[in-house]
């Protein structure tokens, strides 16, 4: 056993004194399995697992589990207007987006795509929808963690003005 385990430092003295013999025996010792035992257990586990290569026809097999990097939404043909709305929404946020962790980036991307499609639907209605678009963009920008609320307000107004300018085109 290393010497530092057998010593106790008193809070008032700088000297280390040895542990009493009855406390030495009470210290827990970690149990580590031996390498042959691990190999034996691994062999038992492999023998228990049977892998079938036949396709399983069950309702749960139809669902695919996607990695976190892929979106659950299937890629679709985006209209020109939708692509330009997404570009307007993403402009000026590149540095902030790059500093986010991957989970937050994916969430922000998914929410941004959903918000852009809602804005496109509002623009197609043809009514005066600036307040609704401003509200949607503001809600989307509030999902960015740790950003100044005045910056979010300013960015949402700028993006709303650009999108409303696209409506006239």
What does this structure look like?
With 169 residues, the chain is mostly helical. The protein has a domain at 80-168. It contains eight helices and two strands; from the N terminus they run ββαααααααα. Strands 1-2 form a two-stranded antiparallel ribbon. Helix 4 (80-90) packs across helix 6, helix 6 runs antiparallel to helix 7 (130-141) and helix 7 (130-141) crosses helix 8. The longest helix has 24 residues, at 102-125. It is elongated. Mean pLDDT is 73; it is low at 58-74. Residues 12-25 have a biased composition (Basic and acidic residues). Residues 1-35 are annotated as: Disordered.
Query: How many beta-strand runs?
Result: 2
Task: Estimate what percentage of residues fall within beta strands.
Answer: under 5%
Helix run count = 8
Low-confidence sequence ranges: 58-74
Please tell me what the overall shape is: elongated
Task: Name the strands of the widest sheet in spatial order.
Answer: 1-2
Topology pattern, helix = H, strand = E: EEHHHHHHHH
Radius of gyration based on Cα positions:
30 Å
Mean pLDDT: 73
Question: Quick recap of the structure?
Answer:
The chain has 169 residues and is mainly alpha-helical.
Map the helices and strands.
Layout: E1 7-9, E2 16-18, H1 21-24, H2 35-48, H3 59-62, H4 80-90, H5 94-99, H6 102-125, H7 130-141, H8 149-168
Antiparallel strand pairs: 1-2
Helix pairs in contact: 4-6, 4-8, 6-7, 7-8
Task: Write a concise keyword list for the protein shown above.
169 residues; elongated; 8 helices; two-stranded antiparallel ribbon; 56% helix; mainly alpha
């Amino acid at each position: 056993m290393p010497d530092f385990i057998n010593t106790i430092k008193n809070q008032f003295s700088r000297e280390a004194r040895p542990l009493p013999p009855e406390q030495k025996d009470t210290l827990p010792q970690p149990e580590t399995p031996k390498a042959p035992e691990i190999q034996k257990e691994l062999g038992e586990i492999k023998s228990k697992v049977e892998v079938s290569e036949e396709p399983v026809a069950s309702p749960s097999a139809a669902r695919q589990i996607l990695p976190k990097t892929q979106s659950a939404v299937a890629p679709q043909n985006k209209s020109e207007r939708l692509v330009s709305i997404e570009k307007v929404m993403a402009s000026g946020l590149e540095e902030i987006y790059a500093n986010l962790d991957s989970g937050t980036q994916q969430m922000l991307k998914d929410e941004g795509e959903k918000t852009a499609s809602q804005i496109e639907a509002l623009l197609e209605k043809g009514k005066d929808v600036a307040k609704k678009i401003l509200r949607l963009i503001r809600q989307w920008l509030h999902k960015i963690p740790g950003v100044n609320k005045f910056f979010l307000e300013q960015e949402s107004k700028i993006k709303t003005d650009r999108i409303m300018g696209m409506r006239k085109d």
